[in-house]
Model the fold of this input.
Amino acid sequence: TRATAKLGPEAAMEAEAQALLARTAFPQAMQREQPNIEARLMLPDDNDIHVLAVAISSHADAIITFNAKDFPRHLLAEEGLARMDPDQLLCQLHAHHPREVAQVVADVHATAQRMLGEDIPLKSLMKRAQLRRLGKALDA
Done:
């Protein structure tokens, strides 16, 4: 929601609404920082340690991030975690639920076009979102 502030008040309100819906649908997904775990962890960027600590305390399977350099696989593996980028995760979801993922992408595409007030080719939107593999899977 913080990242949408630069897109204007309408985008920020839309993001807040989406975040509220997500928190309502998945209340168990909201986790707190874990200082007792953080103290023993090391990552290339100390500002990311809280993410790893929450993943450990909440028994996550993976950390989903584009930030590969600050979440080295070998350090995550020591904690029983994998690292995936959002494109990998969404491709996995698409492989198991193609219609549902396609519908969500269509909805997001429509929302992006409405918010920007212009037509955006889906391929461009997927590239901009760093979701190239999902874009190709949807084209297939």
